[in-house]
Specification:
Blueprint (H helix, E strand, L loop, with lengths): L4 E3 L6 H11 L12 H5 L5 E4 L5 E9 L6 E9 L8 H15 L4 E6 L4 H9 L3 E2 L6 E3 L2 E3 L11 E6 L6
Parallel strand pairs: 4-5
Antiparallel strand pairs: 1-2, 2-3, 3-4, 5-9, 6-9, 7-8
The structure holds coenzyme A (COA).
């Protein structure tokens, strides 16, 4: 695999990334979940990865929770369909884990659809646990919060406790 370049996104990246997300999610309508504000206001805790030709191969957008400063929240992560299963998604999360630890966070949270088996398995491989506490019920065989984001919008809550390098 050619060398990869990890860098912070800028607003100039937004048109290109937002044009790819529906395809990268297999046709699901995702672009409304990625307004430009992510590239304007969350650049310091987000990542772009490109190949040596400057072509986008992945991105992660996230933030440190203002309301819960010990929690970092990963809003979206994706890698190019041509570059999957090569450790790029893991590498993006490792960059984000470093950002989170540097900011004093101790957990990373994310949510996904119970039917997104790839996302559930990916997060499990990265050490996330699936919240199976009060309010959850099995949906597609995974613990999920029914109607979490409104009627019919079920979600799995994913939690990764960060290893404290100073512990
Ligand atoms: C989910 C996604 C980001 C994974 O990216 P990736 O670059 O292929 O992931 P990696 O190669 O770094 O894999 C990391 C781990 O997840 C596991 N994994 C990745 N894809 C998997 C799959 N399809 N099925 C099962 N496990 C999978 C890998 O085995 C690996 O574990 P290991 O290191 O212990 O072997 C990518 O498939 C994607 O962009 N999907 C569409 C967007 C999406 O659903 N994003 C997540 C929800 S926001």
């Amino acid at each position: 695999m050619s060398p990869l370049n990890f860098r912070r996104p800028t607003e100039a990246d937004h048109p290109h990334v937002v044009d790819l997300v529906d395809e990268w999610w297999g046709g699901r309508k995702m672009r409304a979940l990625l307004p430009r504000l992510w590239f304007r206001h969350f650049s310091g805790t987000s990542w772009i990865v490109e190949d040596d030709g400057g072509r986008l191969v992945g991105f992660l957008v996230g933030f440190i929770s203002p309301g819960h400063p010990k929690v970092a929240y990963a809003h979206m992560i994706a890698t190019s369909p041509n570059h999957r299963r090569r450790g790029i998604g893991r590498a993006l999360y490792e960059q984000f884990f470093s950002d989170a630890l540097a900011a004093g966070a101790r957990e990373v949270h994310a949510i996904t659809w119970p039917g997104n088996r790839v996302s559930v398995d990916f997060h499990r491989h990265l050490g996330f646990r699936l919240d199976d506490g009060p309010g959850t019920t099995p949906i597609y065989s995974v613990p999920a919060h029914p109607h979490y984001d409104g009627e019919g919008e079920d979600r799995v809550l994913l939690i990764r406790v960060l290893d404290n390098p100073h512990a």
